[in-house]
Design a protein that fits this description.
Length: about 400
């Protein structure tokens, strides 16, 4: 329902703006074209395939700057809300064509958010500015006004992004919103600052300010692209290490990936944020790596049926191996403590222990063994498995089963 409402609202705003602009024509064409070109360049240089809050920071900064532009080289501008949305929408579509042709273009949610965020900023600023409401706002007061409007726009966009993600995934809204707000402190703050500086600079020196103030954000984007490439390589290395137990015949094929995927779903359900989920994913992928140090392999790699002492020994061996790889020490802690009593474990270790036991028990029980595995976890000795994690796992499995039925139907 929310997805349809947001997409419909953004579509109506875009269509109405296009109609109004086509009927009345563009005002101040050089300004509109300059900002349109900058938005298009921002879309051309967008990040694709990366999990970032703002994939096109330059395009977003330019769009927000145009929405909050009141003067150009000291002359009052006359573009309004409709023209702002039209220029931003057309430029975004043009800049996205190469990415869309490769199947990596922006999603409908991203387009809707861009339209609604820019529309909100322009609606808060353009009518009041054109009526002379801000005529007495000069110097630092005017700069603070732009920063305040951009901050408010960013906060509203963060709430919208979290709501859309919640509607699509059914993950808890609160941790999604925390992740969005945390993202504002990074790239989000740079986008807001660049947007405000662009609007202020163009009002004083004209359009020549645009390329000058675009360079820092482009350089930042290039640096972040390299950082993302390093992180991708880092994750591939961890995935390869996790497969070592499968290649050695210690664990069944795909076991680590299944534990990681289900563990992430449980972690999100329990409200973990992105940094914690990353540690959880890496620990789940490497939770069995201690079996490589065993002289006698565990049958089928099933550690859940071993004694507490053996489980603890394998966990400590795994933690020692993880520490030698240079991975975040927090991952090693989770691997080491997955065999501790549940009350003494961090949340990530509780999740890895429960999900690993469920996966092993369900596999051993054969087709339809998931319910039996859950029942075994519920009836286990007190302190062996965290009851809140078992209950959360049951909810996740029930929701996934319902989704599968809906798709089949």
């Amino acid at each position: 329902m929310l997805l349809a409402l947001v997409h419909t609202g953004a579509g109506l705003a875009a269509a109405g703006s296009l109609a109004v602009t086509l009927a009345g024509g563009l005002t101040e064409r050089p300004v509109a074209v300059a900002f349109g070109v900058l938005v298009a360049v921002g879309e051309l240089t967008r990040w694709t395939g990366a999990r970032v809050r703002e994939p096109a920071p330059l395009g977003t900064a330019a769009a927000l700057a145009y929405a909050l532009l009141g003067e150009s080289a000291g002359e009052h501008t006359r573009h309004g809300l409709a023209q702002v949305l039209t220029v931003v929408l057309v430029a975004s579509v043009i800049g996205s064509v190469p990415h869309t042709a490769r199947g990596r273009g922006p999603t409908t949610d991203q387009f809707a958010r861009r339209v609604l965020a820019v529309g909100f900023a322009a609606a808060c600023f353009q009518p009041l500015y054109n009526e002379g409401t801000f005529d007495d706002w000069t110097g630092p007061a005017y700069a603070l006004l732009l920063v305040a409007l951009l901050t408010l726009t960013s906060l509203c966009d963060a709430v919208l992004a979290a709501a859309l993600a919640h509607s699509r995934t059914r993950w808890p809204f609160a941790p999604l919103l925390r992740d969005e707000l945390r993202g504002l402190l990074g790239t989000g703050s740079a986008v807001c600052a660049t947007g405000a500086v662009m609007a202020l600079a163009v009002s004083v020196v004209g359009l020549w300010a645009l390329p000058v103030f675009s360079v820092p954000l482009l350089l930042t984007q290039l640096s972040y692209r390299r950082y993302a490439a390093v992180r991708a390589t880092y994750r591939q290395t961890i995935t390869s290490l996790a497969r070592a137990t499968e290649i050695a015949g210690c664990t069944p094929a795909g076991h680590a990936r299944r534990v990681a995927a289900l563990g992430l779903a449980v972690g999100r359900e329990l409200g973990m944020t992105e940094p914690g989920l990353t540690v959880l994913e890496y620990a789940a992928l490497m939770h069995d790596i201690g079996q490589l140090s065993l002289v006698d392999p565990v049958p089928a790699g099933a550690t859940a049926g071993l004694s507490a002492a053996d489980q603890r020994r394998i966990a400590l061996l795994g933690g020692a191996v993880v520490r030698q790889t240079g991975v975040d020490p927090a991952v090693a802690v989770v691997v080491e403590r997955q065999a501790d009593p549940c009350r003494e474990q961090p949340l990530a270790a509780r999740i890895v222990r429960v999900v690993n036991a469920y996966e092993e028990k369900a596999r051993a029980a054969g087709p339809g063994g998931g319910l039996a595995a859950l029942e075994d976890l519920r009836l286990a000795t007190v302190g062996e498995y965290a009851p809140e994690v078992v209950a959360c796992l049951a909810r996740v499995l029930s929701r996934e089963a319902g989704t599968a039925r809906e798709r089949a139907g």
